[in-house]
Design brief:
single chain, alpha/beta, Rossmann fold, five-stranded parallel beta sheet, 6 helices, globular
Length: 162
C-alpha cells in the first residue's frame, strides 16, 4: 500500500556514508512512495556540490571550489530542509558536524526529525533526544515505523513535533 500522497524528506547523513545510505534510500523511496532529498546526489547536475560528489566518486578527488562555496553549501541545505515535510537523519560512526547542525536547524524550524542512530553514543545524547521527534536504533526499526504509518495519512506526522 502506498501513501495517499508523496511526502518529501530531507535525508541528513555523513558524506563518507553516502554510498551505503544511497542504496538504502532508493529502496525506501520505492517501497514507501517517498521523495528522499539526498544532498549529495539529488539536484541540478550542474550544481557545484553534485559535480563535486560525482568527481569524488569517479576520480577520488574533489573539484576546485570557489571561496564562497561553504556559505552556498550551508544555505542550500537549509533551504532544502525548510522545503521538506520532515527530516530523516542517519547518525553512524562516521564523523559529520553537518548532520548534527541539520538536525538542530530542523528542530528550530519545527520540522519533525526522525533520527536513526547507528552510533550507540549518539542515541543517548541529550541534544539528539531534544532535537528528535523520534529516535530509532537502526534502519530496520525505522522501516517498521514506516510500515505502521503507511496506513494513515502521512501528513499527520508533519505535526508530531514535541
Amino acid at each position: 500500500m502506498k501513501f495517499s500522497s508523496k511526502r518529501s524528506a530531507y535525508l541528513a547523513h555523513c558524506c563518507s556514508s553516502r554510498h551505503k545510505i544511497r542504496e538504502w534510500e532508493l529502496k525506501i523511496e520505492e517501497k514507501y512512495n517517498l521523495n528522499l532529498d539526498n544532498p549529495f546526489y539529488d539536484g541540478d547536475p550542474n550544481d557545484i556540490e553534485v559535480r563535486n560528489i560525482k568527481s569524488l566518486d569517479e576520480t577520488g578527488k574533489e573539484i576546485e571550489k570557489p571561496t564562497e562555496y561553504q556559505n552556498y553549501l550551508v544555505w542550500k541545505d537549509l533551504d532544502r530542509i525548510i522545503k521538506s515535510d520532515f527530516v530523516i537523519a542517519i547518525l553512524d560512526d562516521n564523523y559529520s558536524i553537518g548532520t548534527h547542525m541539520e538536525i538542530f536547524f530542523a528542530r528550530m524550524v519545527k520540522k519533525p526529525v526522525y533520527c536513526i542512530c547507528l552510533n550507540k553514543y549518539a542515541i543517548e545524547h541529550s541534544w539528539i533526544k531534544y532535537c528528535s521527534t523520534q529516535i530509532f536504533p537502526d534502519l530496520k526499526e525505522f522501516e517498521i515505523f514506516l510500515n505502521i504509518h503507511k496506513i494513515i495519512n502521512f501528513q499527520e506526522m508533519k505535526y508530531a513535533i514535541h
